[in-house]
Design the sequence.
């Protein structure tokens, strides 16, 4: 199903970004689903889902599929394999249990993510700007290190910096 605004109905030749498809809460789709527009899922989708726009999985909705979309917002449940060309956002009520490839990831407090993730860099233009420098071979080495840190221990004690692994010292590698 597609919905259009009143303004678009008055002039159907004018393109409008507010066109979207909807799987309502009483509907289950089992198989392959493809749409060129945004898609809002309030019901259940099983199988394969391809959305050229933004896929919105509403709170209470379930998607168990191989998903390919431009952007994805999950407030319900999504599982399977997810390929998101843009941004994947898991809202506070969202649950994602999947193998994910995305360009950007946002996980709000309260959301659940279980699975594997691969962050793909945005696609860059293949043409180089004239006079641009070639990246150095050292550019592949990380400039900074990230660590997960527990701020309060199980016993209620604060974690201390000694709990963190030592970062490599740049002076030692020279």
Sequence:
């Amino acid at each position: 199903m597609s919905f259009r605004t009143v303004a678009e109905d008055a002039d159907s030749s004018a393109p409008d970004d507010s066109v979207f498809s909807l799987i309502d809460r009483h509907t289950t789709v089992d198989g392959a689903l493809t749409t060129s527009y945004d898609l809002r899922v309030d019901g259940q989708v099983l199988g394969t889902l391809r959305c050229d726009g933004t896929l919105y999985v509403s709170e209470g909705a379930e998607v168990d599929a191989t998903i390919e979309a431009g952007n994805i917002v999950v407030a319900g449940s999504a599982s399977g394999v997810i390929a998101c060309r843009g941004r994947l956002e898991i809202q506070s009520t969202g649950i994602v249990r999947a193998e994910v490839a995305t360009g950007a990831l946002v996980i709000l407090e309260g959301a659940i993510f279980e699975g594997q993730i691969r962050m793909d860099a945005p696609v860059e233009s293949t043409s180089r700007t004239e006079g641009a420098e070639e990246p150095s071979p050292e550019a592949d080495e990380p400039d900074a290190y990230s660590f997960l840190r527990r701020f309060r221990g199980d016993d209620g004690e604060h974690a201390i910096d000694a709990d963190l692994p030592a970062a490599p010292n740049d002076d030692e590698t020279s």
About this structure: DSSP finds two helices and nine strands in the chain. Residues 1-15, 123-153 have pLDDT under 50 and may be disordered. The two ends are 62 Å apart (CA to CA). The CA atoms of residues 59 and 130 lie 49 Å apart.
